[in-house]
């Protein structure tokens, strides 16, 4: 496969400008499929997580000493690329065989307990969680599920108000569905899995409070079954009510 382009588009100073300046971050990953953006280390700047045939990578902007720490497009600096995990190995030796990671997101099981999650391999059957190890050591990989068929969506959010993020995965093949994974400990060594819906060919997920009741809801889009579904979180408990 040919390398993909990871680019950022910078808002121009002129509001009526037709073209946005392009910030070329990386052009080395192949079959780049999943993307997550957020502040992982509380430094005031967002990091980027990618899911590709090469696994999970993290991109950090590091400004120079003389540069701004909040406006990198206006300052000197560089993007630092770190490989978190290689993802799943290829199923066979055929060119283009599915491998690596397809979706990626980040969550927390406590104020200082970060985890990363992925669907592996590309459009794969596995839901995995990565938790930090000792400094300089590979992240610990936890395998939560191997029964997905064409996994295609993944989000993390505290849906039940217990202070720990749950993980929600969707898949579009086979029996199709939407499943929630609730950790029983900070490292996902124990967890409870609950099917939120069946028969919906989930291809995308988002978390938002759609009815302004201070409870995070789920929204799923399903191309093959032609659905846009709101799962209303009525009482901060599972399963959510389908609307």
Write the layout of secondary structure elements.
Elements: E1 6-9, E2 22-26, E3 34-38, E4 47-52, E5 55-63, E6 77-85, E7 103-108, E8 114-120, E9 126-131, E10 140-145, E11 151-157, E12 166-171, E13 177-183, E14 191-198, E15 204-208, E16 217-222, E17 227-232, E18 241-242
Antiparallel strand pairs: 1-2, 3-4, 4-5, 5-6, 7-8, 8-9, 9-10, 11-12, 12-13, 13-14, 15-16, 16-17, 17-18
Give unreliable regions as ranges. none
SS-derived structural category: mainly beta
Strand arrangement, largest sheet? 3-4-5-6
* Computed Rg: 19 Å
What's the story with the biggest beta sheet?
4 strands, antiparallel
| CATH topology descriptor | Neuraminidase
Proportion of residues in β-strands: over 45%
Number of strands: 18
CATH class: Mainly Beta
Query: Percent of residues in helical segments?
Result: under 10%
- Looking at the overall shape, the CATH architecture is 6 Propeller
Order of helices and strands: EEEEEEEEEEEEEEEEEE
Q: How many domains, in number, for the residues?
A: 1
